[in-house]
Structure to design on (1023 residues):
């Protein structure tokens, strides 16, 4: 009979899991905190092509977040041994579900029901999107058993990183690009929260993948397999980009951006960059920065605030500060 | 849709080459913005005459011919254009054309350049006096003074909003009072005003209505209605209204009030866009310090017992009595925990503002007329207010004082460099006075009454950090304290002098002047018994060639004021001025900068803004506010506050790792140093890169 263990946070599993737990909690948010209704006028000012591009990009993201929350995270955490790491993954899993819903929050606010229905139909029938989902899902489904090999686990973790750090960005491009120019800014607040989450998800899963990688018998062979998956996804991503972005004339910029993020995914996995990247559109690159920005509280909600995780109380001597002044 | 070249160039500032930002890209962005956008979209006129006539005929401008001849106008235009004004950064140009420049009715073509706006404002304010118009034009085109947005945006336009945008009022504790406030919120919001209410008089949840216990639903539902009202009245969709509410910390609904900013709270109780502030009397801080048991009160039971509102009581005198009176309903809490709860709410949302009520009333020169009970959306307006008695249809209302304030800011750097403190302050005070005189908000009688009788204005300042950095002075240094102590004393002096002169010219004083500390002369005591000259060598140099008022001059001013009175009940207030500081290529207000290149998010754009005069030599002096000990910032504000009759918008800059206790210690320090308020708390997030680099 197997023994069941309770998660013991008193003994850190490794030197980073506690920190990721903290950071995840701090970043917690829900979609309804934000006010996409401020974008209604901006939405109406966009050309029909731009609206369609935006809807497609976001619905593509919805599919990926759905996959990640319904299959990816649950399968992975089943085979990760550390109980604290499992806890972090399950928190991330919940956030993925919030992400998947939050795109709908934007749609529901700005688009009509028929537009929304059309775009969800499009998701189901678009072969490039379906290819993305199938390719990643296949790696997750391999874990549908009690015992898995290290290689299988590594490929699933690696695929998850590819999804988080690489495949999402063809979708993030358009909201960040528009927001940098003053369009759909309130909705971009939601997108920025998602970007911030996905960035820690990619780093965390990447670290787990690196640990498994060290245990592999033939690491080079496994790495080749992962790179082969990446190649397939990359080719598919280029075609997907053509389909979504050609009408708005941004295809070349998006492709550069995809390569840039592909290299970031490699870094998260501890590998060298694989793509040659020219100049990435600086508006979108700056939009990626998750650092604190200045904003005016009256015109928008900030993305800067976080859950106060550590509440510490006052002491008597806190009431006796030095009040001296030299002038 | 293709990328706009100027936005791309502005974004490229952030691309690092050899470890340095590409600052020259900003100049290229300005150039591209003009060549590729502004010039192409500006209506061209062959002559000045053609331009002026067109703007008047097509109902863009008021008919200036009623007050000026063409030659007089031309003199002002020529004077301004001869100054060869150029925008120093993309942000300045972009903000001006985006938000201030007059456009044709299609909204597509510009009808004004910066110079034209300056002339329009000057002609309008001078009302036919060319000499005055030239004086206004000079301080504006020199960028020594900047009127607040509503004035700068609207002055001279025929079809325009109001010139004033900051209003405050009390809410009475009955349906008529609440309805009046909602009506007021809607009307003021529709003309572009930010409105702040004191809701401390509204009875708490569970109190009696018409003597039946347990029926009141407290302050939250009133806030909810106000929030929706503000977002409804949005100036023809231009911008959503903004509002704030203040609640006294002894009010029993304070927990609910703070929780409304929590993210996972029921929709009915969640407040997203309304700003909130807490009114904190000394008594509360004293209880927290002693760690005594603290009581919160049900305000309606207090009113029924004493016929006086809880938030208007002197809590030092009344607190013990309220505690021991069994008819006053109350609840026990831990004061320190309540402070920590405020800190926690600030960490999660930036709110609430804090208003230290007794600090605001200590030294308040109008205590003989009334006391200051709360503040505004930006926590710099601090004036007396009185709750009006709003009646049902058949009875006459008793209208008392709301608060109306129009603002403007000196640019410290240009004013100091031109050695024109006296001239600039005096001209600025005149400009602010015109705005007060021209404003008459008839649809809200409490606001109208305050403006008519008190003529309040708020002269502030910007570009403090920019000025200090340009002169290689650290913001946290003794020299900075020394500079502010002298500079703001002078602003105070000349603003009083101008107010006295206007009163003397017109024979009109603000209502109740004779009951003020200006009339009995006690306001001037500290200036007559102390000298405010520079003490450090560096600051002495900065003031070289500038005459600084001594106690002798102050004594003279005191005599003049006692004899001739003053026109303005309130004169100074330091606003956070955001948009206007960008136009001026200045650092905002008297706050330290957050970064050498600021990433600025507006509702409609993201722009990169290098700090004014930034180069390799002064880089070091632009230390980020997030890297400063906040006590040093608060200490500097306390020095400025000595010379400001109203308040100063003071932002706390904290980091993710700062605990609730750290924040609470700043509140305690600010309170003890005599600060009247704290505005937002901003938090710099820890990024995961930072975390990883220190732990993995």
């Amino acid at each position: 009979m197997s023994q069941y263990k309770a998660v013991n946070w008193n003994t850190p599993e490794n030197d980073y899991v506690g920190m990721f737990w903290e950071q995840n909690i701090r970043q917690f948010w829900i979609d309804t905190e934000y006010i996409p209704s401020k974008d209604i006028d901006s939405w109406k000012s966009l050309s029909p092509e731009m609206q369609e591009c935006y809807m497609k990009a976001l619905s593509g993201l919805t599919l990926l977040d759905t996959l990640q929350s319904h299959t990816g995270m649950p399968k992975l955490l089943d085979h990760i041994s550390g109980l604290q790491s499992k806890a972090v993954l399950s928190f991330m899993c919940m956030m993925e579900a919030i992400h998947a819903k939050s795109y709908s929050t934007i749609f529901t606010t700005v688009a009509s029901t028929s537009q929304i229905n059309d775009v969800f139909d499009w998701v189901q029938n678009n072969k490039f999107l379906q290819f993305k989902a199938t390719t990643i899902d296949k790696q997750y489904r391999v874990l549908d058993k009690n015992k898995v090999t290290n290689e299988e686990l590594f490929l699933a973790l690696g695929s998850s990183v590819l999804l988080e750090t690489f495949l999402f960005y063809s979708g993030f491009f358009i909201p960040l690009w528009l927001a940098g120019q003053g369009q759909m800014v309130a909705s971009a607040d939601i997108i920025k929260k998602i970007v911030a989450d996905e960035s820690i998800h990619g780093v965390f899963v990447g670290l787990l993948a690196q640990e498994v990688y060290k245990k592999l018998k033939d690491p080079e062979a496994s790495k080749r397999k992962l790179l082969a998956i990446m190649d397939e996804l990359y080719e598919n991503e280029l075609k997907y980009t053509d389909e979504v972005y050609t009408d708005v004339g941004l295809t070349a910029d998006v492709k550069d951006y995809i390569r840039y993020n592909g290299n970031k995914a490699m870094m998260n996995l501890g590998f060298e960059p694989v793509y040659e990247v020219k100049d990435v559109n600086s508006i979108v690159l700056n939009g990626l920065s998750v650092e604190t920005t200045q904003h005016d509280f009256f015109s928008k909600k900030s993305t800067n605030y976080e859950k106060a995780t550590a509440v510490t109380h006052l002491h008597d001597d806190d009431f006796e500060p030095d009040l001296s002044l030299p002038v | 849709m293709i990328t706009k070249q100027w936005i791309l160039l502005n974004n490229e500032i952030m691309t690092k080459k050899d470890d340095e930002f590409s600052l020259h890209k900003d100049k290229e962005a300005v150039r591209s913005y003009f060549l590729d956008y502004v010039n192409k979209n500006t209506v061209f006129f062959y002559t000045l005459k053609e331009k002026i006539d067109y703007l008047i005929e097509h109902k863009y401008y008021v008919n200036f011919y009623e007050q000026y001849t063409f030659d007089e106008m031309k003199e002002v235009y020529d004077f301004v254009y001869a100054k060869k004004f150029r925008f120093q950064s993309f942000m300045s140009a972009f903000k001006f054309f985006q938000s201030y420049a007059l456009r044709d009715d299609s909204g597509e073509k510009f009808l004004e350049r910066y110079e034209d706006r300056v002339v329009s404002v000057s002609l309008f304010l001078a009302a036919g006096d060319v000499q005055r118009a030239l004086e206004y034009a000079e301080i504006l085109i020199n960028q020594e003074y900047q009127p607040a947005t509503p004035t700068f945006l609207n002055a001279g336009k025929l079809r325009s909003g109001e010139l004033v945008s900051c209003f405050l009022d009390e809410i009475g504790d009955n349906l008529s009072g609440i309805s009046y406030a909602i009506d007021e919120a809607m009307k003021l919001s529709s003309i572009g005003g930010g409105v702040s209410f004191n809701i401390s008089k509204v009875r708490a949840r569970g109190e009696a209505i018409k003597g039946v216990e347990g029926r009141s639903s407290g302050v939250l539902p009133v806030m909810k209605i106000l929030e929706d009202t503000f977002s409804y009245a949005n100036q023809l969709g231009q911008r959503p209204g903004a509002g704030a509410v203040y609640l006294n910390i002894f009010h029993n609904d304070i927990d609910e009030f703070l929780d409304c900013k929590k993210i996972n709270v029921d929709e009915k109780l969640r407040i997203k866009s309304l700003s909130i502030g807490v009114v904190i009397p000394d008594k509360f801080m004293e209880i927290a310090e002693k760690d005594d048991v603290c009581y919160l009160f049900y305000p309606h039971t207090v009113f029924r017992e004493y016929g006086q509102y809880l938030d208007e009581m002197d809590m030092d005198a009344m607190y013990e009595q309220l505690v021991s009176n069994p008819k006053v309903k109350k609840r026990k809490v831990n004061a320190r925990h309540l402070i920590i709860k405020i800190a926690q709410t600030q960490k999660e949302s930036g709110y609430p503002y804090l208003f230290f009520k007794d600090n605001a009333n200590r030294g308040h020169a109008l205590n003989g007329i009334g006391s200051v009970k709360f503040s505004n959306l930006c926590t710099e307006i601090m004036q007396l207010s009185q709750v009006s008695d709003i009646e049902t249809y058949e009875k006459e209302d008793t209208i008392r004082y709301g608060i109306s304030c129009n603002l403007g800011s000196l640019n410290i750097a240009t004013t100091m460099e031109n050695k024109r403190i006296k001239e600039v302050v005096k001209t600025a005070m005149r400009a602010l006075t015109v705005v007060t005189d021209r404003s008459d908000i008839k649809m809200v009688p409490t606001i109208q009454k305050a403006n008519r009788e008190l003529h309040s204005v708020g002269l502030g300042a910007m570009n403090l950090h920019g000025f200090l950095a340009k002169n290689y002075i650290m913001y946290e240094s003794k020299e900075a304290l020394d500079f502010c102590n002298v500079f703001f004393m002078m602003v105070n002096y000349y603003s009083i002098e101008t107010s006295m002169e206007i009163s003397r010219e017109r024979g009109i004083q603000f209502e109740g002047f004779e009951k003020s500390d200006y009339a009995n002369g006690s306001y001037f005591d500290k200036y007559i018994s102390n000298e405010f000259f520079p003490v450090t060598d560096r600051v002495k140099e900065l003031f070289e060639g500038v005459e600084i008022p001594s106690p002798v001059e102050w004594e003279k001013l005191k005599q003049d004021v006692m004899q001739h009175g003053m026109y303005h009940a309130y004169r100074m207030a330091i606003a956070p001025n955001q948009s206007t500081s960008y136009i001026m290529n200045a650092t905002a207000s008297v706050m330290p900068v957050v970064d050498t290149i600021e990433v600025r998010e507006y509702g409609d754009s993201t722009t990169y803004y290098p700090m004014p005069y930034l180069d390799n030599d002064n880089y070091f002096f632009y230390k980020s506010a997030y890297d400063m000990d906040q006590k040093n910032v608060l200490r500097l504000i306390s020095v400025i506050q000595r010379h400001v009759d109203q308040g100063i918008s003071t932002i706390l800059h904290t980091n993710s790792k700062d605990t609730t206790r750290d924040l609470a210690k700043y509140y305690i320090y600010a309170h003890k140093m005599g600060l009247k308020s704290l505005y937002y708390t901003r938090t710099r997030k820890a990024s995961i890169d930072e975390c990883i680099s220190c732990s993995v």
Observations:
- The two ends of chain B are 44 Å apart (CA to CA).
